Amino acid sequence: MAKPLRSLSGLIDLETAARLGSFKLAAEELHKTPAAVSQQIKNLEEELGFALFLRHPRHVALTEKGRDFSATVARVLGELRTKAAALQKSGEECVLRISSTHSFALKWLAPRLTHFTRLHPDLDIRLDANDRYVSLQDDSVDVAIRYGAYEAGDPTILFDERLVAVYSPDILPPGRSDFRLADLRTLPLLDEGSNVHWNRYVAANGLPRGGYNVSRGYSHWGVLAQAAVAGQGVALAAFSIVYEDLRKGDLHMIAGRSIPYHSGYRFLVNINKERMPKIERFRAWLADEMAEMQRALTACSYGTDESV
Questions:
Q1: Domain final residue pick, 43, 59, 88
Q2: Which of 74, 87, 105, 234 could form a disulfide with 129 if both were Cys (CB 3.0 to 4.6 A apart)?
Q3: Which residues on adjacent β-strands are paired with residue 266?
Q4: CA-CA distances (angstroms) from residue 173 to 103, 108, 119, 176, 277?
Q5: Structural domain of residue 173, as residue ranges?
């Protein structure tokens, strides 16, 4: 049975000596004597039951086990230092409070926050999903993502939204690998409360008017997307909301022209926190993610129509 470590003395000496490749240099960094560093590591080796260094007349070298163990020690010490630094900072700077609409939080933001926290492990995230008005002068909110109409050139808009027709591959008949525009007349069509956008989509793609079963409406984009994933029909949905489902293969997109949608998600910042580093980091990450999504939309587009 492996013996448990009963003392952590020597771990910092080990990490420093392994990183610098020298007891002497480690001693200089730690403000100790080389003999003290050597003794600490020797004590650690005795407790572990295996050698960490090979000692030569003029230098030392890590053993295979020493390399493996010191790499783990370096990682753990790094995490401890990161956490200590975060706790030593003001609580305001190391907590990011995000208010987002339900649909955006559920279908876009929550699935990606792991990417952001990997980049910025010192930040604690507080995500509040609601569609209510929030005050951007209230300390309980750092940034808000809200949905609404916008004009071209609005700097707060995250993404130039497009509507695309999507469906679950589970509803494909045997032997079919996809649905096409001509199939729309035979399928239940889902929308976000109005068939106006389906009429625009039909016109943009040169399809005959009339004869479509637009009979199911949903109050939120997120609910609409989930209905499509559940196989309830073909949804005409905001690309940003179905992007993750398309990427994972839970939804497929009909090869047709997307149409513009002059409402979208805006990135709003508490006026008292605009220049805080945590805001700048989150803004930059969002911009990168949105650029990647724009590239994905471009890659899978079959043309766009701005006139409808």
A1: 88
A2: 105
A3: 146, 157
A4: 30, 29, 43, 6, 52
A5: 162-259
Give the CA distances from residue 159 to residues 19, 117, 145, 150, 295, in Å, rounded to whole numbers and listed in that order. 44, 22, 12, 11, 11
Residues 174, 116 share a domain: no
Beta strands in the chain (DSSP E): 53-55, 60-62, 95-100, 124-129, 143-149, 162-167, 188-191, 213-217, 234-238, 252-253, 259-260, 263-269
pLDDT band, very low/low/confident/very high, at 308 (cuts 50, 70, 90): very low
Last residue of a domain, one of 88, 113, 129: 88
Lookup: tokens for 86: 């975060």
Q: Please tell me the total count of domains within the chain.
A: 3
Q: How does strand 124-129 pair with strand 95-100?
A: parallel
Cβ neighbour number for residue 41 with a 10 Å cutoff: 25
What's the CATH code of the domain at 202?
A: 3.40.190.10
Confidence of residue 79 (pLDDT cuts 50, 70, 90): confident
pLDDT, tens only, 199-210: 999 999 999 998
Q: What is the pLDDT of residues 139-155, one digit of tens each?
A: 789 999 998 888 878 88
pTM of the model: 0.66
Give the chain's length: 308
Same domain, 254 and 269: no
